[in-house]
Structures are given as structure tokens and as C-alpha cells.
Amino acid sequence: MADQSKSKPKIHYPKLGVCLFIGFIIWWLPVPNLPDGLILPDGADFTKGWCVFAVFAATILCFILRPMPMGPTVLLALVVLAATKTLGETGKESFAAAMAGYGNTTVWLVVGAFLIAGAMIRTGLGKRIALGCVVKFGKTTLGLGYATAAAEFILGPIIPSNTARGGGVMAPVVNSLARALGSTPEGQPKRAGEYLMLNGAHLNLITAAMFLTGMAANSLVVDYAFNEGVKFGWLTWLKGSIVPGLVSLFLLPWFLFKLLKPELQDAKAAQTKAREQLSEMGVWTRGEKIMMGVFVSLLILWVSGKAHGMHTGVVALIGVLVLILTGTEKWEDITGNKEAWDALIWLGGMVCMAGLLKDHGFIAWFASSMEGQVSGLGALVTALALALVYFYSMYGFSMLTGHIAAMVAAFLALAISAGAPPMLMVALLAYFSNLCGCLTNYSTGPVVIYSGFGYVPVARWFKVGFIVSLFHLVVWLGVGLPYWKLLGWW
Prior knowledge:
Blueprint: H1 13-28, H2 46-65, H3 70-83, H4 91-98, H5 105-122, H6 125-137, H7 141-155, H8 162-180, H9 193-210, H10 218-227, H11 234-260, H12 268-281, H13 286-303, H14 305-308, H15 312-325, H16 331-335, H17 338-359, H18 362-374, H19 379-392, H20 400-417, H21 422-435, H22 445-452, H23 458-478, H24 480-486
Helix pairs in contact: 1-2, 2-3, 2-17, 2-20, 3-4, 3-17, 5-15, 5-17, 6-7, 6-8, 6-12, 7-8, 7-9, 7-11, 8-9, 8-12, 8-22, 9-11, 9-21, 9-22, 10-17, 10-20, 10-21, 11-23, 13-15, 18-20, 19-20, 19-21, 20-21
């Protein structure tokens, strides 16, 4: 999945018990009174909305404490809602409502992209692209930083698991380059390894922010936005991110280079190592050529969506079918892609619960109750204040997905009710949902992997992460705000 590190084989029952107990307590608490004048959506039942919130809160706590993987956690939540007939008069109606999220089109876009990402890795095309960037740009240590940026930018739109992209493709290559330069965790980490690890981890978060398909949980933001009447699809997401994102990719390797001051400047040894690995891969295989054709075609079709009218999810599944029909992927590869089907379970379930919270009035109640806390600040100040609180609240979460699921819907509804520009608020939450992962060494899978190599002490990772957070705010607000003004988003 997008940002979950390897699941432990055993369920931690004490932690699971705590999560269930908290959910049970919330379920049986008295349902709050609705504020005077609050109009709920048609068909809303706030009592049911409160029960959904209890289950949702227990689910988010499970995401934070991690007593078991995300898939079964969400499945448990849906079963509780269906079994208690919370969502319908009959068991069948309640079960049908609990399964509604699995028909969401954006969920299937993510699943399709995961299946394509599996082919990108299996054919070796992802590794070839990464090594090719190193051979092209990696004469110096700073050049290796830009090679990583180029590879991340190329792979970002098509590999929706930032863990697969950063941890499965890029991190092993970056680690091997550091060692080729004589930099290891035990000996001379500051020679080059510290810089390369921090650079790789933070670049991964930028490309995750730039593309809707850059990180699986991005689709949750899109769904929450749709619930508030804001369409923020693949092309709109890219249109808003492309300028500040490219500025970030261009400046961050240089910024970290100046900040960390790696001892080694000449990286020709790493470039030679990459050239040797590329040579060992041999000539392009038939599978790589087909994968490259599918990759380019998907990007063209996603960008030209208004011309042909196909949904981005349909385009992704067309790519999957081409890979199957050409023999590039076997059906066993598709059914064996556990990340894709795991994402379907947890993402579809979270989309369902988010919709239920909206439909039964819980989000409207929360926004109305909190509106007084931000009223009077002005539209732009309200948006920025809430975005900053959202960004730095990541310190309290152990994963990006949990952070998004817990806060985006409520913050978006609150901001809009307080008069913040809807498109601007969606953009801030969408991009900050990934960029905030810079703050800790445990925020998402690739960060955990890069940190786990051991080149950077934890305290130093946190210190550099905070400085990088300020870099992101300068770029994405200093460049982003004027650019989004030109787009008419505020």
C-alpha cells in the first residue's frame, strides 16, 4: 500500500482492544445536540452518523497504533457497521451501504495504477530509468541528487505506491551508489550517504504531492473534495502542482547539498557503478518496450481526458489489459499483486465511511461547531491557518494515510464553512498531505526505508526534516499562492 511499512505477522491484541474500547465508548456516548439552524443533508440521520464516527475513530486509532494491517482493520469496521444494521433497515440494506465504496471510480484508478506499477517493476523498466538518470547526471554528488529527482519525476505519475517507487525502486539504487562512493552507515556516512538518503526520501514526498497517482491515499483527498462539491481530478491536481512541484524538484537537491555539505564532490565512481549495472541489464527486452509504450500512452490519455472523455480509471484499466493481452503481464501477476488488492479493501472502505459521515450530517455538525474558532480571520488567513495546523499535526501520526483519513474531510468542511476559497483549500490539503511527511523518520514507507539504512541519526533526521518543512512552505506558498491566483483558485 501507499505508505505502510511491512506488516508484522501477528495481531497485537492489547492495542486492538484499546482501539475497540475507544470506539465502544464513543458509540455509547450521548449523541450531541445539533446547533440551531443547522440543515442536514436529505435523508441524514445524525444518530447513525455518530455511530459511523465511533467506528471511524476506532479505525483511525488502529492506523496510528497499528495492531494489525490496514486492510483487515477497515474490513472489521465495515463488518461492524453492516452487522449492527447501522446503515439500513435490513441486514441486506446495511451490507449494501457498507460496500458502496468499492464502486468508487477513483478507487479503481488507484488499483489500476498499482497493477501497472507492478509491471513497471517486474519488467525492470523502473530500475533502468533510475540507473539511466544516474549515468546521465551523476558525475558529482549534487548530480546524483538531481538524478534521483529526475527518476522520481518520471516514475511518479505511474507508480501510485510511494513505498514501491521510493523503497522498492529508488532506495536500493541510492544505497548502492552511496556504497560505491565509499560511504556506509558505519564508515564515513557524511561522505555522501547522508545527503543521498535524505535527498531521496524528501524528493519522494514531492513527487507524491505532484501527482494524484503519486501516492495511493491521494484519492481520499479527491473523494473528500467531491463530497464538498469540488472536482479535483488527475489533470486538475497536476495543473495546480506542476509549477511549485518543479521548483521544489529543482531547488531541493541544491538546498540539501548546501545544508548537509557532503564531504565528497566527485561521484564518478557511483556513475561507473550505475553504468555497470545498466550494462548487466542488457538490451531492452520486449516487456520493457511494451511497458514504456503503455507508460507514455497512459500519460497522454490522462492529460487529454477532456478530449476523449474517458475517466482516468478506465484509462488505467486499458493499460492493464494491454499488458495482459501482449503477454507482458500474466493473469497470475495481476491476481498476485497484493498491494493493489489490499489498497482496494482499505481505500474503498475509507471512501465509504467518509461518504457516510458526510451523508448523515457528522461533517456538517463538526464544521458548524468549530466555525466560531476561525470566523473573522478572513478567507485567505483561514485557509493558511488551517493548512499550517494540518501540516504540523503530522507529528502526531505514524503514517500519511491515517493523517489524511483523520483530518482532511473535517478541515475541508470547516474551512469552506468559514469562507475559505474551496479550490485553494483542497489544493493546500492535497499537496500538504504528502509534503508533511518530511517532519519525521516514520511518516511513510519510503522514509522508513531510507532512514532504516542507518546513515542519518534519528535526531538529525528530525532536525533536517523541520528545516525541509520550512523549505516546502516557502516554495509551495511563495510560488504556489501567486500561481493558484492566476488559475483563479482564490
